Amino acid sequence: MKYIRKQNNNQHGLTIMELVIAIAIVGITGASVVTLISLLYNSSGSTSDSVTVQNQVGNAAAWIIVDAQMAQHVEIDDTLYPGSLVTFEWVVWKDDDNIKNEVSYVINELNELERIFTLTHSYDGDVEQGITIIAKYLDAEKTDCVYDSSLHLITFNIAVSKTYYRSVNATSIVKVVPRASL
C-alpha cells in the first residue's frame, strides 16, 4: 500500500513575509528607543551644564558682594597681582588684635576666578595666606571690573561659558557700593 502524504494546511510556522514584517517592527521600535535615550542623555548633559554655569556665576557673585561690602579700601587693576581685577582691603578688630584682610580676584591661566587672600595679625605679626577657586569656566574676555567714581559703584561683570556637547553661557552683573571710598 502506498501512502500518499497529504499536505497539512494547518501548519504552525511563519511565512517569510510575516518574519520580515516582525523584524521591521522590532527595528523601528529599537531605533525609536535608541533615539529617545540619546535625546534624554543630551538633554540631561545640557541641563547639567546649565546648572553648573549658573552655580559658578552665583558663587562668584556671592563672594564678591561680601568682600566688597566689607572693603575699606578698593584697588582696581592691582599691581601686586598681575591680571587681578580688583583688590579689597579691610581691618577687623578682635580682642587685642587688628587683622588686616586683603583679597584679590585674579583670573588664572585655566580661566578660573581665584580669590587670593592674606590675613595679617597686628598682635604677633602672623600672616595667613590662601587661594580659593570660586568660579571655573570663566570667559576672560567678558569678565571685568569697573569703578564709577560719580556713583561710588563697583560693577563686576562675570561671564562663564562651558562647552561639552553644546556651548552653555551664563553672565551676571554685580553692582556693589563698597564701605569705603576708592
Word description of this protein:
The protein is α+β, with helices and mostly antiparallel strands and 182 residues long. It has one domain. Helices cover 30% and strands 38% of the residues. It contains one helix and eight strands; from the N terminus they run αββββββββ. The strands form two sheets. A five-stranded antiparallel β-sheet has the order 1-2-3-4-5. Strands 6-7-8 form a three-stranded antiparallel β-sheet, covered by helices on one side.
Topology, number of strands:
8
Give Rg in angstroms.
32 Å
Q: Roughly what percent helix?
A: 25-40%
Shape: rod-shaped
User: Mind describing the biggest β-sheet?
Assistant: 5 strands, antiparallel
Would you spell out the secondary-structure blueprint of this structure?
Layout: H1 16-70, E1 73-76, E2 84-94, E3 97-107, E4 113-121, E5 127-135, E6 144-148, E7 153-163, E8 167-176
Antiparallel strand pairs: 1-2, 2-3, 3-4, 4-5, 6-7, 7-8
